[in-house]
């Protein structure tokens, strides 16, 4: 009976979205992304899945871990606290469970627990976005972002032996992870052909922007610590997942109405980053940097979040429509792999008898679970069935999408853009994410190479508004008021204080043209030195 009800409740369509409406975790997404990078989109199983298995490898190869055998308890605590992702690590009531080694080296996924490292499609979503971005980049003779990202995680890695060579040349953290995974069984895949998917990417703008952000961050790999750069990479990846979902929340309902993925004002057909500002479905975010939730700006930001959550409700309804229509098409021909465009375009009126028979049976089956659907559907069993299912389960799924957004936007964390206290929510930029965004903004491309530049404060604020939809020094359209602008000035003042705290801000006066952001790292194009080891390709 439960399986039958689950079938009625099913809404998810992998052709629309890869990541599921769940709470996602940055470390688990990264650890699952590593084998996708290494094996062209194909997941792999770990070689050891518990702490004791790792410790046993260290004991068996004590010549590689000098001194570890003298302090076994200390080593175990050190590894668990600093180099392992553990479920319930901070809990005093629940037993901690091993998830994985931290994703600091390409083979880190080999030491992980498949059940505990579940990322609910987050890594697949990132891979899908990057692979679609790379298809465009190859057509334009631009370097592959997946290749660049793989090379970064492959520091010292030699594919023929599936190990990291010269581990002594790595930083301590990478040395430790690589030394452990070097003792594990080889994981070689002779099929180097990438997995290509026919599933569309409904918003190419977000994929292009994600690829560009990763390319910019990788410029810093020779001047920034490896752990700090991986942290920054995880921040932008999580951010892009959240923004992508909010874009789809606007796009899919319109696609359902117009029965096509090719809608006016969309972003799928544009070919470069310059088109981002022209996409009318880019979500906007009213940022409030103040600590309280009582200002007019905070109330606008809260309303901004409510609108995004209402769009999620329309998105779930559109997903139900697509899912049930796809179910019917697979009922007609289960051997055919229908594209999303085919599902949207299919005219149900051409199969009127089959539609009525199929959805009448579905509707009557649903009546066995719900008490309040005895109304007469008339002759439109399909739309009535979708309406009933959406009415009963929409809020349930929207709540899960809120969890997805909260985790991808790192709620109440300095690495994200969402804050909540009780029932009060607002958008703001945490210090760590702000640090990462400044790194991105301070790069400028000259003759194919990136270089850091000095950036005026107003230039940075315009950059993050145009690029991500983050309104820091202005009110999002439609919410302007004198009270809001007063609160905005207070927020901007607090923002400059935060910039001073993290060491970027320099001002000679209150005039914008005398307020500057100074780069923390000096990059002058090219690479200071080559990576060690053989190429991963």
Short description:
The chain is mainly alpha-helical and 537 residues long. It is 48% helix and 8% strand. The strands form 6 sheets. Strands 10-13-12 form a 3-stranded antiparallel beta sheet. A two-stranded antiparallel sheet has the order 1-2. Strands 3-4 form a two-stranded antiparallel ribbon.
Describe, in plain words, how this protein is organized in 3D:
This protein is mainly α. 48% of the residues lie in helices and 8% in strands. It has 16 helices and 13 strands. A hairpin with a 7-residue loop joins β12 and β13. α8 packs antiparallel against α9, α10 packs across α13 and α12 crosses α13. The protein is globular and about 75 Å long. The C terminus is likely disordered.
How much is the radius of gyration in Å?
A: 25 Å
Portion of residues within helices: 40-55%
**Oligomeric state of the chains?**
single chain
What letter string, H or E per element, gives the SSE order? HHHHEEHHEEHHHEHHHHEEHEEEHEHEE
